[in-house]
Amino acid sequence: MKSKGIKSILIVGMIIILAFSVVGCSQEVVVARVNDEKITKDEFYDQLVTQNGEQVLNSLIAEKIMELEVEKLNIEITDAEMDAELAEMQDYYGGEEEFNTFLTYVGYSLDDIKNNIETSIKYEKILEPYIEITEKEMKEYFETNKALFNQTEQVKARHILVETKEQADEVKSKLNNGEDFAELAKEYSKDGSSEKGGDLGYFGRGEMVAPFEEAAFSMEVNEISEPVESQWGFHIIKVEDYKEAKEAVYEDYVEEVRNAIFQEKMNDAYNLWYTEKMGEYKIVNNITGQISDPEKINEEAETESK
Q: Among 19, 61, 122, 142, which is 20 to 30 Å from 253 by CA?
């Protein structure tokens, strides 16, 4: 199954803060100051609980129930499943390098992402029995969303981007003399693709600036362009593959359609599962003061029925 979203790690960070806050400590801890005015850890904790405490705690309760259910059902997550989800996520951001750059930008670690992927797969496996998908609705979904599955016209290309026409002519001359395109991209290109030898992967029309697109889609496979000027500088383009536009056929996308419908149904399935499991586990919520004890509820129900 495919997992399309990353669960917010900010919530996990908040939980860590809360966990440290509730540890018994008589010493006043200052988490911030405004001039000489202090903001204590207790004030910070009280505000977090007031604004987000119940929501965050409910999320933690659900995760704890999920872990207990995973253990009870002997659910296992394989390395292959983890690797497939991670690879899909990296592809979405344009490759491993771009994905790692994104993680650095938002302050996440690869371990954070792997933990979220693992949690997501566990939820999917737990919720699978709660989701029914018929062949009829799969075909209807495909016909309704056929445009999403149609293959657009695409090219796969590399480029070398330099600032001046003189530099571009120099690079072109070296290419004409048989030097390697990828190595020259690493040496000369000024954009982020240089580390990958100028590899841009596949792209369709409308994804690149007009002069670049016009040149790339007019070239033959393995052809290398003359310098192409755009707003970014001068490009030398090498087309490595070409895909014609092709109308999608249902039989080729059965698994993708099933995954898409599964993801749409997960929210309702989760609510059903969560309500059911809340009635099976004893839960003591010290923030709200609520206690849910299935055994006691069943005993009361039996007493009332007599």
A: 122
| pTM to 2 decimal places | 0.64
Q: What are the pLDDT digits (tens) for 266-291?
A: 999 999 999 999 888 888 877 777 77
Q: Select from 287, 272, 267, 265 the least CA-distant residue to 61.
A: 287
- Across the chain, mean pLDDT equals 85
Is 1.10.4030 the CATH classification of the domain at 9-131+260-305? yes
- CATH of 151-243, picked from 3.10.180.10, 3.40.630.30, 3.40.50.2300, 3.10.50.40, is 3.10.50.40
C-alpha dihedral (186, 98, 221, 181), degrees to nearest 10: 0
Domain boundaries, the chain: 9-131+260-305, 151-243
Q: What is the pLDDT of residue 71?
A: 94
Please tell me the distance from the alpha carbon of residue 62 to that of residue 270, in angstroms, as a whole number.
10
The Cα-based distances of 90 to 18, 94, 102, 110 in angstroms read: 32, 6, 10, 11
Of 233, 6, 27, residue with least CA distance to 102:
6
| Residue 40, strand partner residues | 30
**CA gap 147, 138 in Å, rounded:** 15
